[in-house]
Design a protein that fits this description.
Elements: H1 7-21, E1 25-33, E2 40-50, E3 56-65, H2 76-89, E4 96-100, E5 110-114, H3 122-126, H4 132-149, H5 169-182, H6 189-201, E6 209-211, E7 220-223, E8 226-230, E9 237-239, H7 241-249, H8 268-279, H9 285-311, H10 318-324, H11 327-342
Antiparallel strand pairs: 1-2, 2-3, 3-5, 4-5, 6-9, 7-8
Helix pairs in contact: 4-8, 5-6, 5-9, 6-9, 6-11, 7-9, 9-10, 9-11
Length: about 350
């Protein structure tokens, strides 16, 4: 389903839902592409089911692959299983309904989940009219949500496709990013320097847990000041819990609100306090800052990979091209953060 939605695709989806829900009939009220999703394609689908296990009107999201993707991302089936696991653990996620591997229906595998209220737009959220109290509560909710995700530990037979790192997660990440950078046929000395710094300065591992690995403003839905759904689990894996904390706090995801270290909406003190309340583990701020550098290196490499998708003509896209143009800003943020950490007593 890599083209604009059509009536025929909508009817195929309705037939699939009718079979899965054992409904007498399924009527499609609306079907349209949703914004976002450079790696996945997301479509809104509103249906009315008569009878069966899911009677009534339902607003759904159909999630499938874009024409090309980032190699590190999970398949739709794998992502669906992670979403199911998170839902069972009590993470605030859209309820997962079904996965379909049959490509004869709409051309690609897809999954269907509930559509939740609110917005995921980072720029909209950080410029919204959240009161100071709402922003603090939202930041604390982020801490509790991360703690719930991190309550899932390996090994787990339900997630056999997730590889448990056989070394310190930070060193595994550094090696992976070095390999990815080596596949891009152009020099990037700032990133090479950052990888060397990360290798030398790595703190002790805090353990291995399930990490979302893209937990940031822009990937959670907010309605009336509350999180209604954590989205986009395609990068989930077993890793150090500080990876998620660093990614959420990285400067790249503050959308211009740089004084609000937690995704442009709140402060680290509230995030860390809520996380500690849920886990019983104190958060080391310097370790978070180390993983913020790791996060920005990762984002820089993803930006390069997305630019290559455009330049190689695999997926000509203005969005992907503009993402690649962000690289100098990301590199400057990396170098500035390393300099600040080096000057810390």
């Amino acid at each position: 389903m890599n083209t604009e939605p059509t009536d025929s695709i909508a009817q195929m989806l309705a037939g699939f839902i009718q079979k899965q829900a054992q409904a007498q009939s399924v009527q499609v009220e609306a079907f349209s592409r949703l914004s976002g999703g450079a790696i996945q394609s997301n479509y809104g689908l509103t249906v009315v089911c008569q009878g069966g296990t899911l009677p009534g009107r339902h607003e759904l999201v159909v999630r499938s692959d874009s024409p090309s993707g980032v190699s590190a991302s999970l398949s739709r089936e794998e992502e669906f299983h992670v979403l199911q696991m998170a839902h069972r653990a009590g993470v605030t996620v859209p309820k997962p309904y079904w996965f379909c591997a049959d490509t004869s229906l709409i051309g690609v595998p897809f999954c269907i989940m509930a559509r939740v209220a609110g917005t995921a737009s980072g720029r909209t959220l950080v410029r919204s009219t959240l009161t100071a109290e709402q922003a603090r509560a939202l930041t604390r909710q982020l801490g509790h949500e991360l703690a719930t995700i991190h309550s899932i530990h390996p090994p787990d037979a339900r997630l056999p496709f997730l590889t448990v790192p056989n070394q310190d997660p930070s060193q595994a990440r550094i090696q992976g990013y070095r390999r990815a950078l080596g596949q891009i046929d152009e020099p990037h000395p700032a990133l090479e320097y950052a990888l060397l710094w990360l290798r030398r300065k790595a703190p002790p591992a805090a353990g291995v847990v399930l990490c979302h690995c893209d937990f940031r403003t822009g990937n959670y839905m907010v309605h009336e000041g509350r999180i209604t759904g954590i989205l986009d689990w395609e990068f989930a894996t077993w890793s150090d819990p500080y990876e998620d904390l660093g990614w959420l706090c990285a400067r790249s995801w503050r959308f211009g609100q740089f004084n609000l270290e937690v995704g442009g909406v709140g402060h680290k003190t509230d995030l860390f306090q809520a996380y500690t309340e849920s886990t019983g583990r104190q958060v080391d701020p310097l370790t978070v800052e180390y993983w913020e550098v790791m996060a920005m290196v990762r984002w820089a490499i993803i930006a390069l990979q997305q630019a290559q998708r455009h330049l190689s003509r695999q997926q000509p896209s203005l969005e992907l091209a503009l993402t690649g143009r962000m690289l100098p800003e990301i590199e400057m943020d990396i170098l500035n953060q390393i300099e600040a950490l080096e000057s810390t007593p």
